[in-house]
Amino acid sequence: MLMGFASPSAGEAFILGQKVGGREGDTRRNVGFLPDVPAFYSWMRAGEFLTFSGELLAMEPRTLKARVAELLDIAGLADVKTPIGGFSRGMRQRLGLAQALINRPKVVLLDEPTSALDPIGRREVLELIGRFAGETTVLFSTHILTDVERVCDTVAILRQGRLVIQEPIATLKEKYVPQAVLLDVVGDPESLVECMQTFSWVSGVERRPGNMLRVAVTDIERAHHLLPGAVTRAGVGLREYRVDEVTLEDIFMRLVNGT
Q1: Residue 5, pLDDT above cutoff 90
Q2: Is the pTM higher than 0.85?
Q3: Listing from the earlier edge strand, what are the strands of the sheet with 202-208?
């Protein structure tokens, strides 16, 4: 719908200040697009396909030649002479991303760019996306939340087609999930639990399998300073102490499912 290939049932969308499908001008020349399953002419080579794509956008020949060489190098395809029909899925995704960037668009829309890739292919595509993050605005749609944490600075969460929230990832982690530390203790943890429940900055203690405790706190610095002493006074040993890292999945589950 944002590219104008399908019509919305209701509402309006704007890209670069122009209404999608409106009469103010065609924004698609300034928007790159990578569908979830990009299609290619299998008999072409990577450079031929990028050149063809640039010609469709009426790019100046000298500028296009330099841009093709630049993108082939960045995508790791400069020395590949195999026709596209022999490419792996990862190579196809990198070529598709290069095609989306051929005319230096102001916005790039990526639809599930890593969903069907193996770990190596996913890492290569994410690294390539990261290289262009400062050059163009990237809208990256995915269900793989670890990929979002790796390359995105702002996240928008949708539920049943409606926007739940849009915030920088760092802000979401501070705002929606309390800070916590994990303690793996040696001995009976009950006396330690009772001690920690007297601290005003401890908002909750969760018992986990074994002798693992998850301690939710409102002041992580006080926790670092005072919890080791509390362990000693409780007469238990400490096998492990670490901050419980908040993930985007934790935030997603809390906002979408209330868990």
Answers
A1: no
A2: no
A3: 202-208, 212-217, 179-186, 237-243
